[in-house]
Amino acid sequence: MFQQLKLTFALILSMSFCLESNAASDICSTCSCRNSETNIDCSYRNLFSIPQQIPLNVEVLDFRGNYITEIQVEAFRNLTNLTSLDLESNRVNEIKAETFQNLPSLKTLYLQYNTIVKIAVRAFDELPSLRTLFLSGNKITEINADTFRNLFSLAYIYTGHNNIREVKADTFQNLSSLTYIDLSDNNITDIEADTFRDLSSLTHLYLRTNGITEIKPDTFQNLSNLKELYLSSNKIKEIEVNTFRDLSSLKHLSLSSNEITEIQVDTFQNLSNLTKLFLSSLEIKEIKAGTFRKQSSLTDLNLSGNDLKKIEGEIFRNLSSLTTLDLGTIGLKNIKPELFQYLSSLKSLYLRGNNLTNIQRDDFKYLPNLEKLYLEKNKIENIQEGTFEAVTSLKNLYLSDNNITYIQRGIFENLPNLQRLVLRNSGIKNYEDGAFLFLPSVNYIDLGNNKDMMCECHLPAILNYTKTILKKNVYILGDCRTDLGELIRIMKYMQCQNYSLFQRNLQCETCSGMKCKDPKVTNCTADEPVCESKLSINDGTVKFEKSCSTYRECLEAMRNNTFTCNKWTSDVSCVVCCTGNLCSKNDLIVNAEGALTKLLKVHRNRCISKQKILTWL
Fold it and tell me: Which residues belong to the signal peptide in this entry (predicted)?
């Protein structure tokens, strides 16, 4: 009898092993099984259902991109080692109660981009380890208050791009580990005041692109660790003063594309750690001085798309850390230099889409660290010579879609770091010889869609010189018209056999010393003669020189300027070069600061004029 029982038990074990092996073998004949069948990839296999027998030791299951319409209640039961289950991009329309039974190790569940309309109340009850839940891109209309009730480990929940109309007050109750909630792109019109109550671990909350009309004062109560809050593209009409009072850790706040008509001066008073603030496309007509008084950490500010025709520099007084400012499409007609007087750290300035017609010499004088300047889609007709003289850190300059008919020499001088210059569709008809000569770092000039621009030899000569002599490529885009009216590529213009970039028998006024007394005219004998003005400090001694130089040496000196010609340190120099008639227009302006304040106020010199250096204090 005992022997018979032993045989029976052995037979049962054998059959069990065979069934399990066959199940594994069956799924692995359709899918890719790796790591001793702990990682099974069934993605994009044209499956219409879940294989009903899956190895119990599986850890990762991937069913992405199939045609699965239904998940059987027992499909994944007792897969106790499963940590990741991916059902993204199928046709599942319902998650039934107890669908995910006894999956104690599951940490990540992907259900995005199905057609899920309904989630049963108890669907996720047996997932104690779940940390990340993806439900984006479905057709969910409602999240029941008990849907997530037992997901105590849940940290990230993605429910964007659904049809959710309402989020009940207790939906996230007791989810103490929750750090990330995405409810963007739904149809939510109202948020109850207690919806996010006491989610002390929450760091990211996305509510953009809904139909929210009101934010109640206690909506964000006790969210002391929240770092990012996005409320853009809703229908919010008003933000009360105390709305953000508990968000002391907030770094990013977006209120863009709402119907807000006023920002009260104390709205952001408790947001001292804010680094990015987006207030674009609202209905505000004024920003009051003091609105940003507590935002000394702010690096990015977007005010574009508002009707701020008059904007004063005082609103930026405390924004010493600001590096990006967007004032696009605010109806600006002119620039007052004082607008930027407190923004010496600014690196990117957006002024596109305004009504600017003239750019003046001092407009950007307070922006020594500016690297990107966007002036597209204005009505600019004139850029004063020396306009960009103070922004020698500039790398990208965008002037497309304006009414600039003529580019004169001197506009783009003293820009040793400029790499990209874009002048597309700006109505340019001519440019003066030498207009693009002293740009030592430039590698891209776009003059496209200036259909009436006449062909000149200057740009083809620069391209040929930099390619053959300097071994560097400069990309110059655009067409020009020949004398016969033919439209050709700028670089295809060939009527330049006798053209030279450099003036032969060039004469430079040369001298050396503080006041540079008694300058003399010197004939420059080099093959590529240019005139050089150099202001330097060595061992605390200030020195000014005017001399002959070569184009290559001057480009290298300009490229190696180790400061912006506005701020001084020891053992540095500021170089400006010119050639031919350019030398009667070239200005070198240096505002001394710091240790030199007592020695120098302003230095102005014309490269080949009879002006003297101003008296040094």
Answer: 1-23
Q: Which residues, in sequence order, are CB contacts of 604 under 8 Å at separation 6+? A: 587, 588, 589, 611, 613, 614
- Which residue type sits at 407? I
Q: Please say whether the beta carbons of 416 and 390 come within 8 A.
A: no
What is the Cα–Cα distance from 500 to 475, expressed in whole angstroms?
20
What is the reported pLDDT for 581?
A: 60
- pLDDT for 99 equals 92
Residue ranges of the chain assigned to CATH 2.10.60: 507-606
Contact 163, 141 (CB under 8 A): yes
Q: Can you tell me which residue has the tokens 């997530």?
A: 148
CB atoms within 10 A of CB 592: 21
The rounded distance, in Å, linking the Cα atoms of 391 and 337 is 13
CA angle 331, 336, 337 (to 5 degrees): 135
Distance of CA 201 to the CA centre of its chain: 27
Give the distance from CA 468 to its chain's centroid.
Answer: 36
Q: What is the CATH number of domain 358-501?
A: 3.80.10.10
The whole-number pLDDT of residue 568 equals 58
Using alpha carbons, select from 440, 441, 474 the residue that is nearest to residue 459. Answer: 474
CA distances from 324 to 101, 276, 277, 317, 594 (A): 50, 9, 10, 15, 25
Please list the alpha-helical segments (H only) found in 242-350: none
Compute the radius of gyration of the chain from its Cα atoms.
34
Query: What residue has token string 């001298």?
Result: 511
**Closest alpha carbon to 231 in 220, 241, 246, 242:** 220
- Continuous segment of H or E residues that includes residue 11: helix 2-30
Whole-number pLDDT of residue 346: 98
DSSP collapsed to 3 states, 46-96: CCCCCCCCCCCCCCEEECCCCCCCCCCCCCCCCCCCCCEEECCCCCCCEEC
Does pTM top 0.90 for this prediction?
no
Tell me what pLDDT residue 562 has: 60
What is the Cα–Cα distance from 439 to 410, expressed in whole angstroms? 11
**Euclidean distance between CA atoms 531 and 506, whole angstroms:** 8
**Residue with the two structure tokens 């660290």:** 369
Tell me what pLDDT residue 567 has. Answer: 59
- What does residue 119 show for φ and ψ, rounded to 5 degrees? -120, 120
Pairing of strands 39-41, 32-34: antiparallel
SS3 per residue for 156-216: EEECCCCCCCEECCCCCCCCCCCCEEECCCCCCCEECCCCCCCCCCCCEEECCCCCCCCCC
* 28 phi, psi to nearest 5 deg: -75, -15
pLDDT at residue number 540 = 66
pLDDT at position 193, please? 86
How many CA atoms within 13 Å lie on the side-chain side of 525?
A: 0
d(CA 214, CA 239): 8
pLDDT means over runs of 10, the chain (617 residues): 47 39 64 91 96 90 98 91 98 94 97 96 93 98 89 97 92 93 97 90 98 93 96 97 96 98 96 98 95 97 94 94 98 94 97 97 94 98 90 96 93 91 97 90 96 94 90 94 94 87 86 77 88 80 85 87 61 78 50 35 32 31
Collapse the DSSP code of 458 into the 3-class scheme (helix H, G, I; strand E, B; otherwise coil) and give the result.
Answer: helix
> What CA dihedral angle connects 28, 30, 33 and 39, to 10 degrees?
-110
d(CA 336, CA 365): 10
